[in-house]
Amino acid sequence: MLFRVFPRPEMAKLFSLLADRRIVGPVLRGQDRSGRSLYDFAPITDFAELALDYSTTVYSPKSWFLPYREEVSSFRVTGREWQRKVDMAPGPPTVYFGLHACDINALQKLDKVLLSGGWPMTHYAAKRSQAFIIGVSCLPCEQCFCRSMGTDQAQQGFDLFLTDMGDYYFAEVLSAEAFGLLEQLSAREPNNDEHALYLDWVRQRERAFTCRVDTTDLTKILDLEFQAEVWQKWGAKCFSCGTCASVCPTCYCYGVSENVDLDLQGAHKIRQLHSCNLIDFAEVAGGHNFRPESHTRLKYRYYHKHRGFVEAYEEPLCVGCGRCGKACLAGITVPDVIASVRHEGNRG
Ligand code: SF4
Ligand code: SF4
Q1: For the chain, which terminus, N or C, has the lower number of CB atoms within 10 Å?
Q2: Distance between CA atoms of residues 325 and 110, nearest Å
């Protein structure tokens, strides 16, 4: 990795150098009932729209790579012939400008599942191959616990990662293309003082985390607590609405449906994201539901993220972004659920 610094006003120039591509970045969408700002990732043509000081977005950048609903293939019959259409829909080359470390790490986790193995997801791969990623440092918000999940910093998965140091940006450079862009700014190598200031900034940020999850021996604890009553307590609170999965940057479960046209001359295969908390998630042909009760579904979500995925990939499928807890109308948060399973305090 290379390091560079460049003056703050040159950020707008960096934006304009990338303007030949679609630029997707955080924008302010409005406020919630408590007056808190709501942000989303959206296409941007004007640098002034880019809200780089955003806290977190309601939906994650996952939606740009793994849309909620996507046509996988279709066919049409004409006479005795039929034509199959498979459009990977990669979209135009896109700059994702302003991703936080947790969301970059989330994409890395999705890559492990969706790009590896015998059957990589081609539509996802096409979009990933078109992406140029610029990360930005953030300060911890009330509900994020990325530091506990080891995802508060990104070591890979970006081209350029920027930290706002006041008068200048401290840049971590991972790709030749990013290096070439910085060459067009008045970027230079940081001196010793700038290195030291950056390290101070990192340490201060680490101290600012207030929300934590103890992951020590968590897989073993989850094994031991599989039948614990606490799961029923959380299940009784859960509305089985699936909101947590839809805002989560790492949930990737989906269903596929085949819809035949009314004239019976064609059909479309549609992939739609699903949620393991929805009542029909574990329903199979014949109508049997392996997880008819809400607590079994909620428990499954936690076991997939903090037990099964760790067994398969040696890391949890949660980046601690806190989105699910913020969005949950029942007030169910990962820190509270994990603490209650660990029998810490009175949470739950
Ligand atoms: S945990 Fe919350 S957001 Fe998730 S399904 Fe249950 S009620 Fe909905
Ligand atoms: S489970 Fe919740 S905290 Fe973890 S990555 Fe998903 S939305 Fe973020």
Answers
A1: N
A2: 20
